[in-house]
């Protein structure tokens, strides 16, 4: 699994961001945005498929994956929305096609509605977008992050492994699970894991969810129908708030649709991105 590398760096306002580009330059740009507690690694199959026809950009948010993790770091939705806007400017992308998963959905929506980041089209995959969100476990950890941060490393590792694994309906390959868990281990990774949960405040989606009716770009909402993290019923609810949005249910997929049904998700995205050409 070591072949997924992010060789480029960008000094964002919230810490160093690692990123990469795939596919031919000059083709329509597509930016893939990951969620929490994941990284761009979850997009690897989709990114490589899209890169046959598009110029694909992937990145790890500050505090995640290969990007910088630091004590006191602001990794909130507010910070990530600003960083995404900075990164689009750094790449020189005017109106890219954007595909965002989970927490990345809120990041891309905030960047567009609050910071003026313009997109040609937006695909949201099981996004964090409507209140209430966060499982009981997620809320418990957020309220007691300083306690969980002190867990013995072996217990912490088991907790993160169980938590990340539950995002898949079919179950993750052990090597994939290892790769997703690895950034959250060790002296730097363990506090970073609890830091990002502690800062996951619903007020950052409350600020924008009443503005989804302002979206004037093509929007596709994909939802794994076996998602146990965010109920699939949120899909139709979100689509109803966005003019002209379309819902694409994906059977047999949990919250990590990219892992559970990469072919089905890629097919839906290719059709949508083709329409937005």
TrEMBL record:
InterPro entries: AB_hydrolase_1, AB_hydrolase_fold, Carboxylesterase_BioH, Epox_hydrolase-like
Protein name (Swiss-Prot/TrEMBL): Pimeloyl-ACP methyl ester carboxylesterase
GO MF term (any one): catalytic activity
UniProt cross-references to Pfam families, sorted A to Z: Abhydrolase_1 (PF00561)
Occurrences of domain AB hydrolase-1 (ranges): 29-262
